[in-house]
Amino acid sequence: MKKCIFILFVGMFGIANAQAPTGYYDNASGLTGYALKTKLGEIITAGYQTKSYDALYDIYPSSDSDKWYEKDNTVLDVYSENPTGPDPYNFTHGQKKCGNYSNEGDCYNREHTVPQSLFNSASPMVSDLLHILPTDGKVNGMRSNYPFGKVSNPSFTSKNGSKVGSNTSPGYSGTVFEPINEFKGDIARCLLYFVTRYQTKLSSFSSGNILNTSNVNQGLQTWELNLLLLWHQQDPVSEREITRNNVAYTHQKNRNPFVDHPEWVTTIWGPSPLAVDDASFSKNLTIAPNPVKGNVISVIGDKDLKKFTKAFIYNMVGQNVQTIENPFQNGNTIQLKNLPKGVYILKTGELNTKFIIE
Predict the structure, then answer these.
(1) Which of 69, 156, 236, 348 has the most other CB atoms within 10 Å of its CB?
(2) Taking the model in full, what pTM does it have?
(3) Which of 34, 94, 91 lies closest to 225 in space, CA to CA?
């Protein structure tokens, strides 16, 4: 049941600043709105080194190995990873690369979060690591070139819960693909990166009900932008994304600025106008009391919380306001640092939930 609905007024999050080189973003200082987006596009284009499409398979062991869930160094596939239990199947880097597939688990390939068909598979977009993820071939094929959206009555559901079906978010009723909650923010930041990096090329691309080719400043169709802003708010930047961003810089000499500075999403596009409810967050983590009236919260999960070595609290301007080491070794209470009134997100492992301090 939905407990409450509210609007998140600004974007969030980031576990820690990624390791951008000193001075990398200096020329963006003081800018806001689309002027900031344009400048970021210039920064992340300068010095970019185009690699081959095949080279992605070589870099994935560094950028997309599972060091966060099972920690078995298999391919971290956002379309098959189960963040709350055993994966339905796994891929070993370099083995079972697609060719042909009939079923999930047959092979993995390279998923362009912005479909290749929209830019005619042209370089450098076709091999840009920062928007291309390793994914199961069958599920990638089912995603096809559909936009990302919200699905209530799926025609297809993958083994990790990713879905294909009619969109139920406002503004578009066509077929869409919905990833699981754990990776929605990751995918949103991939697309926001793409329309920033390739702003000067967007007018020559096809829309696909994804890209806004007539308004390259906005970059995305309004309905898609609003949903991705929401996903960015709900799913904070993870340590996995920070690692991936650092590997991308080593590989192709540019970065995703919205991983380094997630607060820039709302600085450019503003907050998502879509409502957020408790059902959008993890059902496996709750906080009591909520709203919080003191400096101590009790955290309840449906699994052994002792396995989580860190917990993070974010405010609503993208700042990590508190990090707690080994938070649940001696019980399930967390002492807050005299945080001011407002809305916050607690994230530990793959679990997150919101709470309010009154």
Answers:
(1) 348
(2) 0.79
(3) 34
DSSP per-residue letters across 262-296: TTHHHHHH----S-EEGGGS-TTEEEESSSB-SSE
DSSP 253-264: S---HHHH-TTH
Give the position of tokens 């001011």. Answer: 340
Nearest to 207 by CA among 142, 272, 145, 165: 145
Percent of the chain past pLDDT 70, that is, above it, reads: 90
* Structure tokens, 329: 């070794």
| Interval 238-284: pLDDT, tens | 999 999 999 999 999 999 999 999 999 999 998 777 644 444 566 67
pLDDT at 7: 33
Question: What is the average pLDDT across 332-352?
Answer: 84
Amino acid at 248: A
The structure tokens listed for 134 are 């390793």
Cα 349 from Cα 347, distance rounded (Å): 7
Written as six digits, the tokens of 290 are: 């909520």
Q: Is 314 exposed, middle or buried (0-12, 13-18, 19+ CB in 10 A)?
A: buried
At residue 185, does pLDDT exceed 50?
Answer: yes
Residues 6 or more apart whose CB falls under 8 angstroms from that of 286 comprise 299, 300, 301, 353
Do 177 and 146 contact (CB within 8 A), yes or no? yes
Angle at 20 between CA 347 and CA 224, to 5 degrees: 60
pLDDT (0 to 100) of residue 18: 58
- Please give the pLDDT value at position 2: 31
| Cα(252)–Cα(243) distance, integer angstroms | 14
Owner of token pair 């709750």: 286
